[in-house]
């Protein structure tokens, strides 16, 4: 059974006909070639596929399309900044050598962007709390 | 926090990034060339590129063994062949070549293998869980997987030997008929025989320890693709960290001449060494050759975990003796390596025990015997620090036990016994280390150790006793290079637009081959005025790039960094005029000068290896690390938390601070995983990141202090040694030693999961 969804993806309106139990990551990667959404574990443990859905961090690899409301705002790493116009969190990531192999980097960038949006501007001390309390922490396995 | 400062308007983006002064980047925090693409998600990996392949591309799925040891009686593909979208089901009989991976015997003495024991597709036997039995090529991945599930495999299941003791039991059958399960032996025979009766019992210890089957747990699953290129070359793209090394390993098995085979490394999302072994390369090659169509294969994380190589478990039995002052006299060892069912590099790995049991310590007499054993568990592949985590799980725990027994401070015990120039100290292989830096390293580390001792004392004083705090010490030393002889090559070209292109095969796990290639060359090219943005990189394609050797054994900076520097020197020397100015491209051409140069670098031991004794001078450089973790042990739950981790290391000159720091941060966290949580032992249970015990963010201390001594190395470019493996040779004994310091409980195996710690604490009460 096919369903229709209209999403605003990185500021662009997209009409998508999909199978309702397809995961958001499949639509982003295979259909739209937004390959910044990476598939690591594929079961929601690692966060390499993290994207923002209506401002909230979501694991795209386990999120079925049918559970995302029509007209949801979806932001992938591609929507945060570009090589020619980097977001400050991306510059900071480069400056501190955080991108090593770079595979999980998009997931971190998306999560960090959400965290910054929520806390740091309002409260200069906020960004020191790097792990939000109510959110499951992300895995850390550097090189 | 820097990003937040920019958002608040306190800093600008330009403030954050290091910009070179006077065109110098050696030793700075210059960001790696790939960084901007990585942070924007535009750095493509293999699975991304597979999506961009042409419509006729066939997607592959494997039929894999679900038992660990069996005879194959038949494979029935008839149902699968009729399934939707199926192009071809490939079994062993379809493989054009020898259908075996060449395991490349490295050390023939006392080696009963010829290296041809690993099938591409199993024909006679299944040797381990996950072994590939057939390949399905179909129009979509879903169709390929559905058809793979329909292939029927008729098996006669055999007893599975999942550890060294099981494989060495008297009634165990030979896993590879005709070759005993105990198939290789290497000995360290250094110095005179020691009379163990000459020292009192109070001056010696004997320990038995176990280092685990640590899984690599890269976030990117294994993947690759293959096709026939415009010159008729079978071209395989994968995460290979040894593209030239893997060519002879897979060519005969696939059935393709070497000059018609081309390997390319894709951008890799971490390997930690598992890609020193071919994984999917031969499978992809066979499928592309048989189907004559482009093919791609993506592993799931389950497949990556259950069917790629693992760290080989080490069963360590070590005796250590000292004089009354604590000065070491002798080491004895009898150690076994479980290398799984395939012999490739099993000799090399086991020989690393010969080289590193007792490493970093001045021990006049060593007798260690190290044996490799076939089992039916996961095959042993390279893993960061290769062999040394097993070695130090033996000798570093032993010196900690001896210090405790003799009432000597564990830090001072190691400091007293470290390599010293005045004593003409020798490594376990009987040679001088590249530099005598350990005394200075201990002097540098001492205040950090003493401060940690004081912190731990205060925490224990303030604790109600349930949480106990401890500080541990270990000393890790590891070599940079392949054994005995090693060589690398880099090319350089001056382009018509007066940029230069560096051409090498410095494979990137993610450790920073791009920034290291750039920096190695730029330190010379800057003399002729080249800025980093005028240096291009062309890397990791056997058709276009020279053989720089594999990216393993922390060799790349020393070997390929040197070759790259030499290539740059050759170009700059050609560009230099007598008056000291430099010719540009047009002027070079006008004067008939070459614009393409080669850099070669080779290391050859001045004392070649004696395979009987393990004595020789195997490495051009070494890395030295003192590990100082501080732990909190919950004595009611057994849960251990590393609260602070200090490392004091000497990797020679630091070429790029961000890359070296990155290697250390990650390596120390991986060490915490090795010590406390990571394992691949239960093949039914240990099948995901969580079940395998990957450290999550709260398992890594916020407080990690990286301290460096930079003793210039005689054989490295600009005085650099390698650094990638330095943080993972001995972090885990330090953590176990810290648990002992906290609780008095001595743990002899990793991972020290809470139940293991609790049992050890309870045993003390009895």
List the helices and strands and how they pair.
The complex is a heterodimer of chains A (143) and B (766).
Chain A: E1 2-9, E2 12-19, H1 24-31, E3 50-53, E4 56-59, E5 73-75, H2 88-95, H3 105-120
Parallel strand pairs in A: 1-5
Antiparallel strand pairs in A: 1-2, 3-4, 3-5
Chain B: H1 2-7, H2 13-16, H3 35-39, H4 46-51, E1 58-64, E2 70-76, H5 78-81, E3 86-91, E4 100-101, E5 118-119, E6 125-126, E7 132-138, H6 141-149, E8 152-157, H7 164-167, E9 182-190, E10 204-211, E11 223-228, E12 234-238, H8 243-254, E13 261-265, H9 281-291, E14 295-298, H10 301-306, E15 314-322, E16 328-338, H11 346-356, E17 365-373, H12 388-406, H13 410-416, H14 438-462, E18 467-471, E19 474-480, E20 485-494, E21 500-504, H15 513-525, E22 535-539, H16 556-575, H17 585-590, E23 596-604, E24 621-634, E25 640-650, H18 657-676, E26 703-709, H19 731-743, H20 754-765
């Amino acid at each position: 059974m096919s369903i229709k969804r209209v999403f605003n993806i990185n500021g662009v309106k997209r009409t998508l006909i999909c199978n309702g139990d397809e995961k958001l990551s499949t639509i982003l990667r295979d259909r739209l070639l937004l390959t910044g959404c990476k598939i690591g574990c594929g079961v929601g443990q690692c966060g390499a596929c993290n994207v923002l859905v209506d401002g909230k961090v979501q694991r795209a690899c386990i999120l079925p399309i049918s559970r995302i409301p029509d007209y949801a705002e979806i932001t992938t790493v591609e929507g945060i900044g570009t090589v020619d116009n980097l977001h400050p969190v991306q510059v900071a990531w480069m400056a501190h050598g955080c991108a090593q192999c770079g595979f999980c980097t998009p997931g971190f960038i998306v999560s960090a962007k959400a965290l910054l949006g929520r806390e740091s501007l309002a409260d200069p001390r906020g960004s020191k709390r790097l792990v939000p309390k109510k959110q499951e922490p992300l895995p850390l396995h550097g090189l | 926090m820097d990003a937040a400062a920019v958002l608040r308007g306190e800093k600008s983006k330009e403030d954050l990034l290091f910009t070179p002064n006077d065109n110098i980047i050696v030793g700075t925090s210059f960001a790696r060339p790939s960084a901007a693409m990585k942070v924007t998600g535009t750095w493509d990996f293999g699975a991304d590129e597979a999506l961009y392949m042409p419509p006729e591309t066939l997607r592959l799925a494997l039929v894999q063994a679900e038992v660990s040891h069996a005879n194959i009686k038949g494979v029935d593909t008839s149902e699968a062949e009729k399934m939707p979208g199926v192009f071809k089901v490939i079994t062993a009989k379809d493989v054009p070549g020898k259908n075996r991976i060449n395991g490349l015997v490295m050390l023939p003495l006392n080696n009963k293998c010829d290296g041809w024991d690993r099938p591409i597709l199993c024909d006679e036997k299944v040797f381990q869980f996950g072994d590939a039995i057939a390949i399905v090529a179909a129009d979509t991945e879903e169709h390929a997987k559905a058809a793979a599930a329909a292939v029927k495999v008729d098996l006669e299941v055999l007893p599975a030997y999942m550890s060294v003791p099981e494989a060495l039991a008297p009634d165990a059958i030979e896993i590879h008929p005709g070759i005993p399960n105990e198939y290789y032996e290497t000995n360290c025979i250094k110095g005179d025989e020691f009379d163990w009766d000459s020292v009192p019992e109070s001056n010696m210890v004997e320990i038995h320890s176990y280092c685990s089957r640590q899984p690599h747990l890269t976030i990117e699953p294994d993947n690759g693709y293959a096709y026939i290129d415009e010159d008729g070359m079978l071209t395989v793209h994968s995460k290979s960290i040894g593209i030239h090394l893997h060519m002879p390993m897979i060519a005969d098995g696939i059935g393709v001449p070497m000059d018609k085979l081309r390997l390319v490394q894709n951008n890799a999302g971490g390997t930690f060494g598992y890609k020193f072994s071919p994984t999917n390369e031969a499978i992809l090659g066979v499928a592309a050759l048989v189907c004559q169509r482009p093919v791609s294969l993506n592993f799931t994380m389950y497949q990556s975990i259950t069917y790629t190589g693992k760290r080989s478990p080490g069963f360590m039995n070590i005796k250590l003796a000292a004089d009354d002052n604590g000065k070491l006299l002798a080491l004895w060892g009898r150690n076994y390596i479980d290398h799984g069912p395939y012999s490739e590099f099993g000799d090399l790995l086991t020989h690393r025990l010969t080289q590193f049991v007792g490493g970093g310590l001045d021990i006049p007499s060593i007798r260690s015997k190290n044996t490799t054993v076939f089992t039916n568990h996961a095959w042993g592949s390279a893993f960061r620090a290769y062999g040394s985590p097993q070695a130090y799980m033996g000798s570093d725990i032993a010196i900690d036990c001896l210090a405790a027994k003799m009432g000597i401070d564990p830090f001072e015990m190691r400091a007293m016994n470290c390599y010293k120039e005045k004593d003409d100290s020798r490594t376990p292989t009987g040679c001088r280390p590249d530099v005598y830096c350990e005394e200075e390293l201990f002097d540098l580390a001492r205040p950090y150790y003493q401060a940690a001792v004081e912190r731990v004392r205060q925490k224990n004083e303030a604790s109600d006793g349930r949480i106990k705090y401890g500080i541990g010490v270990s000393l890790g030393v590891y070599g940079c290079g392949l054994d005995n002889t090693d060589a690398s090559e880099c090319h350089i070209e001056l382009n018509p637009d007066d940029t230069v292109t560096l051409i090498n095969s410095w494979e990137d796990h993610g450790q920073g081959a791009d920034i290291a290639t750039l920096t190695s060359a730029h330190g010379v090219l800057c003399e002729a005025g080249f800025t980093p943005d005028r240096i291009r990189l062309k890397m990791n394609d056997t058709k276009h790039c020279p053989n720089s050797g594999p990216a393993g054994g922390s060799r790349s900076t020393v070997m390929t960094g040197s070759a790259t520097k030499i290539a740059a020197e050759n170009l700059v020397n050609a560009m230099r005029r007598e008056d000291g100015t430099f010719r540009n491209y047009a002027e070079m051409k006008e004067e008939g000068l070459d614009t393409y140069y080669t850099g070669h670098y080779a290391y050859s031991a001045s004392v070649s290896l004696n395979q009987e004794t393990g004595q020789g001078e195997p490495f051009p450089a070494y890395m030295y690390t003192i590990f100082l973790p501080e732990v909190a042990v919950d004595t009611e739950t057994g849960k251990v938390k590393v609260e602070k981790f200090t490392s004091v290391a000497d990797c020679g000159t630091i070429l790029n601070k961000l890359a070296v720091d990155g290697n250390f941060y990650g390596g120390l966290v991986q060490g915490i995983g090795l010590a406390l949580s990571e394992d691949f032992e239960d093949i039914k249970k240990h099948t995901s990141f969580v079940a395998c015990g990957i450290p999550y963010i709260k398992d890594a201390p916020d407080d990690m202090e990286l301290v460096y001594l930079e003793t210039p190395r005689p054989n490295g470019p600009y005085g650099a040694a390698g650094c990638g493996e330095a943080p993972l040779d001995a972090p885990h004994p330090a953590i176990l030693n810290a648990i002992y310091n906290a609780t008095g409980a001595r743990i002899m195996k990793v991972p020290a999961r809470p139940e293991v710690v609790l049992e050890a604490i309870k045993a003390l009460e009895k």
